Automatic annotation (TrEMBL):
GO terms for cellular component: membrane. Belongs to the multi antimicrobial extrusion (MATE) (TC 2.A.66.1) family. One of its GO terms (molecular function) is antiporter activity. One of its GO terms (biological process) is xenobiotic detoxification by transmembrane export across the plasma membrane. It is a multi-pass membrane protein. PANTHER family: MULTIDRUG RESISTANCE PROTEIN (PTHR11206). It is found in: Membrane. The chain crosses the membrane at residues 60-80, 92-117, 137-155, 175-192, 204-224, 230-254, 356-375. Keywords: Membrane, Transmembrane, Transmembrane helix. Its main location: membrane. This is MATE efflux family protein.
Amino acid sequence: MSSSSQNIQREPNRFDHVKIDERTPLISETNNPNLEIRLNDIIEIKTFSTHEAIYLLKKAFPAFIAFLLLQVLQVTNVFFVGHMGQTELAGLALGTMFAAITCWSIGFGATAALDTLCPQGYTSGNPKMAGIYTQRAIIVMMLGFMPIGIIWLFSEQILIYLGQDAELSYYSALYLRYLLLGAPPALIFWCLEKFLQGQGIMKATTYVLAICCPINIFLNYALIWEPLSLGYIGAPIATTITNWLMLFLTFLYIKYIDGYDAWGGWSHLSFEDWSSFTRLALPGMLTACADWWVYELIALCAGYIGSVSLASHRLVLTSTLILFQIPHSLAVAASNRVGNLLGAGLPNRAIITTNTSLLLAVMGATCNAMILLCFKDSIG
């Protein structure tokens, strides 16, 4: 052996002092604190993920039921007016589409800003910030509705200019004129809904709509048919009354049941820093309008093809909206939960909640796909 090989010194081994015999285990039992920490972290993450999955599903279910009840409100007008005649029904459909394009899509998109602001404000150490954000949203949206209301007042001339039938334009404008007073409470109701959801209160809207749905059915019957027999204008009047009732009941819920601690009454701060709302509202408006207007445009194109195509499209659209609400309700619950965790200074838990919600979303999308595949020949 060369001298260089003899000069190589073996590095000391931590097992040199251990006496090895046939009873010595092949894998030593060592206490590694870092390994224990990692194992504890994994267990904690799994436990928290399970907890968050259950929490998100519990919060998403009331939001889904609320959407179904909201659909009942919209279908009620169509049901009663549909028995009056084809012209009245077409005028109602045109008016509903005009309102959706010019108001509902814009308002719905703008309130998406509160999905970010209210949860973080509620858990930021000053829960009344959620109320201040909501008040700013209400003020901005009421100011924004003023030009929309003017457009509604001149909707007949606008529709005729766009080439719509004169009689349909008349009925559409008549519907919008009587719905004019019902739009502001609907927009404020959406703001208060986001305010409550930001506190994790998802059931309030469901309770309110569960009360208002049967009342709306009664109002449509009483105003359109008997005993008042107002005819076509009874539909928008019933909707207007229902919208004000929804707003009133929501205020009562906040005041006497849950959520008022974060409201704190109207504050002068609500007239300041509107940019904190508009910065988030504008992207939400663009997203909602792009999505909403595409559906309305497709409906318009389907109408040019024929009545059968239009009816088929309406069936597909209704099915899509219902199935869409499964992941959408989950998204509402997840958005508010993540906002609460970020506001409380828990970003790591917010990441876990986000990953959990994504997994649930994939499962929900799979269920939707299975429903469509299994019932594609029987729906309709």
